[in-house]
Amino acid sequence: MLNILKKCKNYNNLIGRNEIKSELIKLAQTMDDRFIVFVGSQGTDKEAWADALASNLLCENPREDGACLECRACKYLENGTHPDYLEINPEKESKNIAIQTIRDRVHAEINILPQLNNVKLWRIDANALQEGAQNALLKVLEEPPSYAYFILTIDDRTKLLPTLRSRAREIKIPAMSRVDLNTLLDQHDVSDPNQRSLAINFSSGLPELALQLAEDEGLQEERKNVFKWFVEFLRAREVDVLTTSYDFWDKSKSSMDTNILFLQSFLRDMVLLHAKPEIEKDNLLNQDMLNYLQRLNQEYKFSVENLSNALRTLNEVSKRSKANVNFEISICGMLLKMRNALNLNK
Predict the structure, then answer these.
(1) End-to-end CA distance of the chain, in Å?
(2) What are the record keywords, sorted (predicted)?
(3) Residues in CB range of 59: below 8 A, 6 or more apart
C-alpha cells in the first residue's frame, strides 16, 4: 500500500506538498526543534512524513532530499535495529500506551547517551496517549538532554494536553490534491479509469483510502447496487419504505458508511446538474452515471432545495452513526426524512 513497512525514508518517497518538505529539511538542518508533532486526519500519510524526518535526523550522511538510505544508521533503522531509535505504540491487547510504558521506554532511557551519533529519537503514536501517559511524557520534556528528539503523530491536536501542545513544533499534513492522488495511483499501477475515478472522487484526498478504493473491485459493484436501490426507493410506495427499502440497509449494515457516501455523491451530482445542465463531466463524482442522473432529475422534477434537504438528512445520519445511535431507528428516520425532503409523498 503506502510502503508503511519501510521505516527508513527520505522526502523523495513522499508525494507533493513541497512546502512541507522544505520545512522539514530546514528543521533537520537547524535541529532547533526537538519535540515535533505531525497532525493529520486518520488516513493521511502523516506517519510516512514522520518517518522521513526521523530518518533525516538519524542519518549519518543526510542529503538535500533527507536521509541517504545507505549509511550505517539508515541500514540499522530499516532493519529495526537502530540502538538510538525507540518506537512506542499501543500494547497488543490495548488501544492505549500505559504510563508504565512511558516510564520504562522514556524515563529509564533518557539519560543513556546515543551510541551512533548525537541524536536519540523517540517515535510515539500520540493517539494512544491518555492524560496520565501524557503527563509522564511532559516531565521528560521539561528539561530534556540536548540529544533527545521526540516525534509524535496524532489525528486530532486537541487530544494533546495544552502543556504539551505549547512545547511542540506542529506539522500539519493535509489531504492529497487530485494531482497528487493521480501520481499515487500511477506509482501503484492503477490504470483502470473507473477504479481511478472511484479512488480520486471518494477518498477525500486520503491516500490509504484511495488505494483501498482502487484495489477493491467490490466497491465498484457496491456503488451500482446503491444506485439501483436509490432508483427503487424513488419509485417505492410509501407503505414499502420501512420494509423493502429498509431491507437493503439491514443486509448491508457493515457497509453503511460507504453506502451513505455513495448516496451523498448521487445527490451532490444531481444538484450540480440541476444548477448547470451543461456542466462538464469532469466536475461530477459519478461521471459514468451522468445520463442516469439527468433522467432522474427530469423525471421527478427535483428542485435544488429538495436535493439539498436530502443531503442534509444523510449528513445527519452519518454523524449519528459515529455516535453509535441505534441502527434501525437511524435508518428508518433517514428513509422517512428523505421521502419528505424529495417530496415523494405527494
Answers:
(1) 49
(2) Coiled coil, DNA replication, DNA-directed DNA polymerase, Nucleotidyltransferase, Transferase
(3) 66, 67, 68, 71, 73, 74
Q: Which of 180, 198, 309, 317 is nearest to 256 (CA)?
A: 317
CB 28 within 8 A of CB 73: no
**Residue whose C-alpha cell is 493517539:** 127
Q: If residue 150 lies in a helix (H) or strand (E), which one and from where to where?
A: strand 148-154
Which residues neighbour 125 within 8 Å (Cβ) at sequence distance 6 or greater? 88, 89, 90, 97, 152, 153
DSSP 3-state assignment of 254? helix
Amino acid at 233: F
Domain annotation for the chain: domains and CATH numbers: 11-174 (3.40.50.300), 216-342 (1.20.272)
Between CA 140 and CA 148 the distance in angstroms is 10
The grid coordinates listed for 324 are 453509535
3-state secondary structure of 38: strand
**pTM of the predicted model, to two decimals?**
0.78
pLDDT per residue over 219-230, tens digit each?
A: 888 999 999 999
Q: Tell me: the pLDDT tens digits for 25-83? A: 999 999 999 999 999 988 899 999 999 999 999 999 999 899 999 999 999 999 999 99
CA gap 143, 111 in Å, rounded: 11
Retrieve residue 246's grid coordinates: 429498509
The answer, yes or no, to whether residue 323 has pLDDT greater than 70, is: no
According to DSSP H, which parts of the chain are helical? Answer: 18-30, 46-58, 72-79, 99-102, 131-141, 162-165, 178-187, 193-202, 207-215, 217-235, 246-251, 256-275, 290-300, 304-322, 327-341
Computed over every residue of the chain, the mean pLDDT equals: 91
- Grid cell digits, residue 320: 449519528
